[in-house]
Design a protein that fits this description.
183 residues; alpha+beta; Rossmann fold; 5 helices; binds adenosine-5'-triphosphate; binds magnesium ion; Chromosome partition protein Smc
């Protein structure tokens, strides 16, 4: 499964609707300091359900909304949509027949978020559920950020096991069991 494009509007420095295309398996994003490269990665993590503002380099969730510049007024909401190519049917179940899967998150200034799967409103949980065990997700290894390699190398045995369980696709079932046991 491959991320094929990201549509951003009102998210951090991307005030105007912007589509970032990922046409092949290897794409580099280049630009001067402060042009918004890391904001693109923050956008991916945010849509996946990241709920800690600090992990998105902000103090509160509303910090992801464009806060204005010398030339532009702030806006009221931020929206990001990730479009995945599911041509190989990697996402199974009810999603197997969808060639494309679009995951969207929208947030307003009051901090309330809405999530959408292929245009239909859903819960945050539906998004995290969808990607659990695929290696994607807000804190998964699909995004290797600064310091992560050393975190893996220095991980305790149980933390390391978490990475292997995600890669093997069993974290999904462990999460379900944990939920059942705590109910
Ligand atoms: P570097 O090469 O230094 O890592 P970068 O290209 O990764 O830079 P980012 O950190 O993605 O840059 O972008 C930082 C820019 O985004 C700053 O100019 C900052 O003002 C702007 N920015 C971040 N949040 C918001 C927001 N909520 N509203 C408006 N602009 C924002
Ligand atoms: Mg950066």
């Amino acid at each position: 499964m491959r991320l094929s494009k990201i549509r951003l509007a009102g998210f951090k420095s991307f005030v105007d609707p912007t589509t970032v295309q990922f046409p092949s398996n290897l794409v580099g994003i280049l630009g001067p300091n402060g042009c918004g490269k890391s904001n693109v990665i923050d956008a991916v993590r945010w849509v996946m359900g990241e709920s800690a503002a600090s992990r998105l380099r902000g103090d509160s969730m509303a910090d992801v909304i464009f806060s204005g510049s010398a030339a532009r007024k702030p806006v009221g909401q931020a929206s990001v949509e990730l479009v995945f190519d599911n041509g190989e049917g990697r996402l199974g179940g009810q999603w197997a027949s969808f060639a494309e899967i679009a995951v969207r998150r929208l947030v307003n200034r009051d901090g309330s978020s809405q999530y959408f799967l292929n245009g239909s409103r859903c819960r945050r949980r539906d998004i995290t559920d969808l990607f659990l065990g695929t290696g994607l997700g807000p804190r998964s290894y699909a995004i290797i950020e600064q310091g992560m390699i050393s975190r893996v190398i220095e991980a305790r045995a149980d933390e390391l096991r978490g990475f292997f369980e995600e890669a093997a696709g069993i974290s999904r079932y462990k999460e379900r069991r944990r939920e059942t046991e705590t109910r």
